[in-house]
Amino acid sequence: MHELSIATAIVERAEETARFHGGRVTAVRVRVGEMAGVVPDALRFSFEVAVEGTALESARLLVEEVPARARCAPCGTGFAVGMPPLLWCPRCDRPAQELVEGRELEVTAIELEEASV
Predict the structure, then answer these.
(1) Per CATH, is 1-66+102-117 categorized as 2.170.190.11?
(2) Which residues are annotated as part of the binding site for Zn(2+)?
(3) Is the dihedral of CA 22, 26, 31, 34 positive or negative?
(4) H or E, element range at 39
(5) pLDDT tens, 55-85?
(6) What distance in Å separates the CA atoms of residue 67 and residue 24, rounded to the nearest whole number?
């Protein structure tokens, strides 16, 4: 399950951010595209495992799931490709040549609670 290595990398990045800014991580927000090859539920579970024994133990992982969308170059139509993906334009009946959304795998925010002095 590669989601565990992804979750571990997210935890490491969040710990670095917390050290740099001097706060406690309360939540990490990520965007996961439908075609990123990552199962959001497996990532959530892996995050729970990865935070055990770390400063992020009480932090939440908030996952925004991004649907896959394509655009047809000849007619300009944008459309959801679904799963399994169908990269065929519903308007002009040609193959779409560009996937415009759905491959994302990115940390968008690390929420911190300021350390009390």
Answers:
(1) no
(2) 72, 75, 89, 92
(3) positive
(4) none
(5) 899 999 999 999 999 999 899 999 999 888 8
(6) 31
Cis peptide before 84 (omega within 30 of 0): yes
Strands 60-66 and 23-33: parallel
Considering the entire predicted model, what is its pTM?
A: 0.86
Binding residues: 2, 72, 75, 89, 92
**Parallel, antiparallel or unpaired: strands 105-114 and 78-80:** unpaired
C-alpha to C-alpha distance for 86 and 48, rounded to whole angstroms: 34
Amino acid in the structure at residue 1: M
Q: Three-state SS for 75?
A: coil
From the annotation, which residues make up the binding site for Ni(2+)? 2
How many residues appear in the chain?
117
